[in-house]
Amino acid sequence: xxxxxxxxxxxxxxxxxxxxxxxxxxxxxxxxxxxxxxxxxxxxxxxxxxxxxxxxxxxxxxxxxxxxxxxxxxxxxxxxxxxxxxxxxxxxxxxxxxxxxxxxxxxxxxxxxxxxxxxxxxxxxxxxxxxxxxxxxxxxxxxxxxxxxxxxxxxxxxxxxxxxxxxxxxxxxxxxxxxxxxxxxxxxxxxxxxxxxxxxxxxxxxxxxxxxxxxxxxxxxxxxxxxxxxxxxxxxxxxxxxxxxxxxxx
Length: 250
Description:
The structure is a single chain. The protein is of the alpha+beta class and 250 residues long. The protein has five helices and ten strands; from the N terminus they run E-H-E-E-H-E-E-E-H-E-E-E-H-H-E. The chain has two domains: 94 residues, Alpha-Beta Plaits; 143 residues, Alpha-Beta Plaits, CATH 3.30.70.660. Helix content is 22%, strand content 29%. The longest helix has 13 residues. The mean pLDDT is 95.
């Protein structure tokens, strides 16, 4: 038996998220079908995390166990030949049996893109959140720094019905290593790196920072919201289109 690790990029706009579901188009289901066509095996690849419907990935990691003897480089070509253009396999490597895409992960980085100009180009609309309204971007940057460190992120977590079914920890405590906003041409971009993330956590953080940018909240309110451990205290969940899983560290 071989334990194979794949690095993937995908456009999440046309998928109902990562996790396989009946009668819907998912990334995990599409990959399972493609692997089955090549190996003749029925497998369910395990991802580093379950990205939501519409969320993109630049370097998602997944693992699966196979008896196939196909060389790793051949797997890259064979999978890309049968997968839709919206999913690309960037690399395949053989790992020790104990390696697992999710359980072995030490840190992840996410990025959220907001397009700030008045008219969003149509070829960008699937990949950003268009928000042309007034924002105090400096205040948002200060607010972002307040979530760095080990905290209970209950205020920023949506209820996840799948939580606990696959051995996930019940605690909502996570460590954020870096959290920052920066201007990149016509976009305001949020990048956050942490030990792990709760369901909708990044999108809820962004929604809260938007309220800071609109002066609905003050910068210091971010700390108060963290301490409240109450989802209703934080901002709304922003659209999935602007969110990317940038990378996973092991």
